[in-house]
């Protein structure tokens, strides 16, 4: 067993390996893991502005625009003017995009199962600690981010 000089090195390496597994499971759907995350978030959030989606993922609106442009070009999402604010667009899932959601959930479940098998009886504690780490480093689940923003208004 290798010993890392810094504790987080093992976490970084593990994250890369997990993402490689996810890519393998997602590949038959013809999308990338980040695109799968966006489609899933849009399903949970409902019609959403690009700015709100970017905020939920902690990226710039320009970065989100690049990601959503690819989903638009593939016919997975739509972009329409926001009826409330002409300066914003609202993104929504198309039927083609919705059809991917079941496959996305199955891919994520397969990766969860692979991690659980690797960790054995420690899996539940690991997942709980991972969520705790995400929360304490400022990460949020997209629909939680949207609800928090609405309560601030």
Please supply descriptive tags for the structure shown above.
globular; 8 helices; 153 residues; mainly alpha
Note poorly predicted spans.
none
Count of extended strands: 3
Q: What kind of sheet is the major sheet?
A: 3 strands, antiparallel
Q: Based on CA inertia axes, which overall geometry fits? A: globular
How many helices? The count is 8
Helix content: 55-70%
Strand content: 5-15%
Terminus-to-terminus distance: 51 Å
Explain what you see.
The radius of gyration is 17 Å and the shape is globular. The longest helix has 20 residues, at 7-26. The chain has helices at 7-26, 33-45, 50-57, 61-73, 95-98, 101-119, 123-136, 142-152, and strands at 48-49, 77-81, 89-93. The model has no long low-confidence stretch (mean pLDDT 88). A hairpin with a 7-residue loop joins strand 2 and strand 3. The protein has 153 residues and is mainly alpha-helical. The protein contains eight helices and three strands. A three-stranded antiparallel sheet has the order 1-3-2.
SSE topology sketch:
Layout: H1 7-26, H2 33-45, E1 48-49, H3 50-57, H4 61-73, E2 77-81, E3 89-93, H5 95-98, H6 101-119, H7 123-136, H8 142-152
Antiparallel strand pairs: 1-3, 2-3
């Amino acid at each position: 067993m290798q010993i890392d000089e810094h504790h987080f090195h093992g976490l970084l390496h593990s994250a890369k390996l997990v993402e490689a597994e996810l890519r393998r499971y997602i590949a038959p759907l013809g999308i990338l893991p980040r695109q799968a995350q966006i489609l899933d978030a849009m399903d949970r959030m409902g019609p959403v502005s690009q700015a709100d989606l970017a905020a939920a993922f902690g990226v710039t609106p320009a970065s989100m625009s690049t990601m959503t442009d690819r989903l638009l070009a593939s016919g997975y999402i739509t972009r329409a003017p926001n009826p409330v604010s002409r300066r914003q667009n609202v993104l929504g899932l198309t039927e083609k995009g919705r059809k991917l959601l079941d496959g996305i959930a199955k891919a994520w479940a397969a990766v969860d199962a692979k991690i659980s098998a690797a960790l054995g009886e420690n899996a539940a504690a690991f997942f709980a600690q991972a969520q705790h780490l995400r929360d304490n480093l400022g990460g949020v689940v997209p629909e939680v981010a949207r609800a928090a923003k609405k309560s601030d208004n």
